């Protein structure tokens, strides 16, 4: 069976690429420390020596649109082109191409449907910064095949938080039962408190530092029960109007497991939103 | 009222560089052109299979034609779509980093929770 060698949950800040590559007067003051933190985080994935990456993220109205909106979708293709014109325009993100691990995609789809998730699929998926940001931060050489998993945190009606946790639990079970001997890492990205297109956007910190502190505590201690007791689709409006992206962190808590403390935790308080980085080693592989 | 159609306008303009410039320069004419010939197109289908029933409410058409993003927020347009497109059009007019984004927040500062429903 495949081995789950690392579980990683991260924010996906689209400005990292531009900040980390800027020089001279264009380089923001927070860039050097950000790069240091990201490189330390990257080492937690490198140490696990993965062969394959399952990448959990969310399309930001790029390929998935309101005339045909899936709740959970898995890409099944030999390649994935990535990043879109409006991400190049706004964030300076580069065009990328990733290889796909198509047999694992097929396995997750078949077994996932049988496990009770009516998963949508795509055989030609252009992926966006929710998945390319963690490639840029965690695996910039972009040398590993991926399985993209998209969730709807964007276009209501959304699945409820518990469903995200359950999908995470199921993805873990399926990866661990995948025939073969590959070393798999599951990497998912979301947000802490975040406001986009509203009055609280682009402040000196995330819109709700108190929520962020709680969220980091839930994630780092694996407190799924506590998190689910406080987080609902309604409650997530309060910390910021884009905070439903936190449900992808909850999915990753489901992957890591109830009560599983993260082996690596780091945060970085930036303008606009707090960065947060977590790594678990389910088998102790990277410790 | 059609939040869906508002979003469809923002979505289809935002992904087309020429349309972004056209909407910046001639908002009223672009909105009229789009409603006349594009609003009913089903994406990925040819023109003969267009829908027959989509049109803006007057307040929606007026908000788009006036680049009135606070009004679009009040009408329940998806905030991510509005923000992304308006950054593309107007960030260039501000000297300070995030100058437009902070102005945008200020212009929405009268909005309090719960925000307008964005469900379509």
Automatic annotation (TrEMBL), chain A:
Q: Signal peptide location in the record?
A: none
**Gene Ontology MF, one:** ferrous iron binding
Q: What is this protein called?
A: Protocatechuate 4,5-dioxygenase beta chain
Q: Which Pfam families match?
A: LigB (PF02900)
Please tell me which top-level EC class this enzyme sits in.
Answer: oxidoreductase
Q: Where is the Extradiol ring-cleavage dioxygenase class III enzyme subunit B domain?
A: 10-267
InterPro entries assigned to the protein according to its UniProt record, in alphabetical order: Xdiol_dOase_suB
This entry's Enzyme Commission designation comes to: 1.13.11.8
Record keywords, A-Z: Dioxygenase, Oxidoreductase
From TrEMBL, chain B:
Top-level division of the source organism's lineage? Bacteria
Protein's name according to its UniProt entry: Uncharacterized protein
């Amino acid at each position: 069976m495949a081995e789950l060698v690392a579980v990683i949950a991260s924010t996906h800040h689209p400005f990292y690429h531009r900040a980390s590559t800027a020089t001279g007067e264009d380089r923001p003051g927070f860039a050097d420390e950000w790069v240091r933190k990201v490189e330390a985080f990257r080492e937690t994935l490198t140490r696990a020596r993965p062969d394959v990456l399952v990448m959990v993220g969310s399309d930001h109205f790029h390929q998935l649109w309101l005339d045909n909106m899936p709740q959970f979708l898995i890409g099944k293709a030999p390649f994935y082109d990535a990043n879109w014109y409006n991400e190049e325009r706004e964030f300076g993100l580069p065009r990328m191409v990733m290889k796909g691990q198509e047999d694992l995609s097929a396995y997750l789809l078949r077994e996932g449907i049988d496990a009770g998730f009516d998963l949508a699929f795509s055989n030609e998926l252009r992926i966006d910064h929710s998945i390319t940001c963690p490639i840029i931060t965690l695996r910039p050489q972009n040398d590993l095949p991926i399985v993209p998993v998209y969730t709807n945190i964007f276009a209501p009606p959304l699945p409820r938080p518990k469903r995200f946790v359950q999908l995470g639990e199921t993805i873990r079970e399926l990866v661990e039962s995948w025939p073969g001997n590959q070393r798999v890492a599951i990497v998912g990205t979301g947000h802490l408190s975040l406001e986009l297109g509203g009055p609280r956007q682009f402040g000196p910190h995330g819109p709700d530092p108190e929520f962020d502190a709680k969220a980091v505590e839930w994630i780092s201690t694996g407190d799924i029960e506590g998190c689910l007791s406080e987080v609902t689709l309604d409650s997530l409006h309060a910390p910021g109007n884009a905070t439903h992206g936190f449900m992808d962190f909850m999915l990753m808590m489901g992957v890591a497991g109830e009560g599983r403390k993260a082996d690596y935790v780091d945060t970085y308080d930036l303008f606009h939103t707090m960065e947060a980085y977590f790594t678990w080693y389910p088998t102790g592989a990277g410790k | 009222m059609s939040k869906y159609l508002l979003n469809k306008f923002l979505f289809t303009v935002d992904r087309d560089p020429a349309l972004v410039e056209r909407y910046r320069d001639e908002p009223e004419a672009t909105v009229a052109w789009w409603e006349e010939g594009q609003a009913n197109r089903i994406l990925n289908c040819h023109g003969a299979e267009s829908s027959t029933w989509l049109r803006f409410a007057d307040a929606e058409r007026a908000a788009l034609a006036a680049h009135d993003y606070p009004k679009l927020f009040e009408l329940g347009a998806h905030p991510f779509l509005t923000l992304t497109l308006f950054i593309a059009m107007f960030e260039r007019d501000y000297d300070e980093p995030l100058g437009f984004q902070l102005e945008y927040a200020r212009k929405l500062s009268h909005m309090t929770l719960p925000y307008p429903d964005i469900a379509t």
